[in-house]
Amino acid sequence: MKVVKGPSSAQLAEKVARYLNVEAVDVFARVFPDGESYVRLSGDVRGEDVVVVQGTHPPQDVNFVKLLLLVDAVTRMGAKSVKTVIPYMAYARQDRVFLEGEPVSIQAMLKALKAVGADEAITVNIHSPWTADQSAVKLTNIDASGLLASYIMQAGVEKPLIVSPGKKGSEMAAAVASVIETDYLAVKTMRSPETGEVEVKVEEIEEGRQVVVVDDIISTGTTMAKTIQQLKNYRPSKIIVAAVHGLFIGSAAEKISSAGADLIFTTDTVPNPFGYASVAGLIASHLS
């Protein structure tokens, strides 16, 4: 087995290779003057079971094209098999047709992976787990909720209230709460399909509790910040924010901190300053 270090996830790929005790293959990547992407493998993968690690976080389109090019390059060189590790799967939130005339974007992406030669796509906490049921390529979804739970416990909180900012993330909140052996609450949110504006409503909770807000993705931070602002009405003694994927678009981190978060952490599916919890071990366990 060899691990190919996609440009967007080179550090994570290196960690996975170390866990597996296999060679990590470097990738030379550049952009042509007209904006087109170029990639070239720096090692031989003929006859090997190859794992291409390349996240599709922003810039999503660029990183996804590089992923397709890498899979094509590996296939053309004569790899025995090709698995892709996509720590953060872009377009996963467009998992159905919400308004007439829309595509199902995630299924289009998975069809493209299959077309260039991928045998399997491995990701971490995809937005809708049932996406795998309709995928053109074998799709494996790794759950990092246990990893979040262990880092929450290391943060020194005792019996915190686990809060999910919306019904969508309630399963993850429940899983984290189960590991920590505490209770959880799903905040009521309403999002406009036309504008994307979010309305947040938090049920009454016990004052003075330690609270951990858990979500799969932090993007602009708006929903998270609104949730924290609502929670502050009940004077929590500490507010921790934990997420699997930390995109932190624009001033998201500042927005969340200003709202009242005492600590922010994520996994390293997306390179960011808060990616303290590495998913490399989880990925390596699946591959071994």
From TrEMBL:
It is an enzyme of class 2 (transferase). Coiled coil: none annotated. InterPro entries: Pribosyltran_N, PRTase-like, PRTase_dom, Rib-P_diPkinase. Keywords: ATP-binding, Kinase, Magnesium, Metal-binding, Nucleotide biosynthesis, Nucleotide-binding, Transferase. Residues 1-117 form the Ribose-phosphate pyrophosphokinase N-terminal domain. GO terms for molecular function: ATP binding; kinase activity; magnesium ion binding; ribose phosphate diphosphokinase activity. SUPFAM superfamilies: PRTase-like. It holds the Pfam family Pribosyltran. Its EC number is 2.7.6.1. One of its GO terms (cellular component) is ribose phosphate diphosphokinase complex. The keyword Magnesium applies. Residues 143-245 form the Phosphoribosyltransferase domain. GO terms for biological process: 5-phosphoribose 1-diphosphate biosynthetic process; purine nucleotide biosynthetic process. It catalyses: D-ribose 5-phosphate + ATP = 5-phospho-alpha-D-ribose 1-diphosphate + AMP + H(+). The keyword ATP-binding applies. Belongs to the ribose-phosphate pyrophosphokinase family. PANTHER family: RIBOSE-PHOSPHATE DIPHOSPHOKINASE FAMILY MEMBER, RIBOSE-PHOSPHATE PYROPHOSPHOKINASE 2. This is ribose-phosphate diphosphokinase.
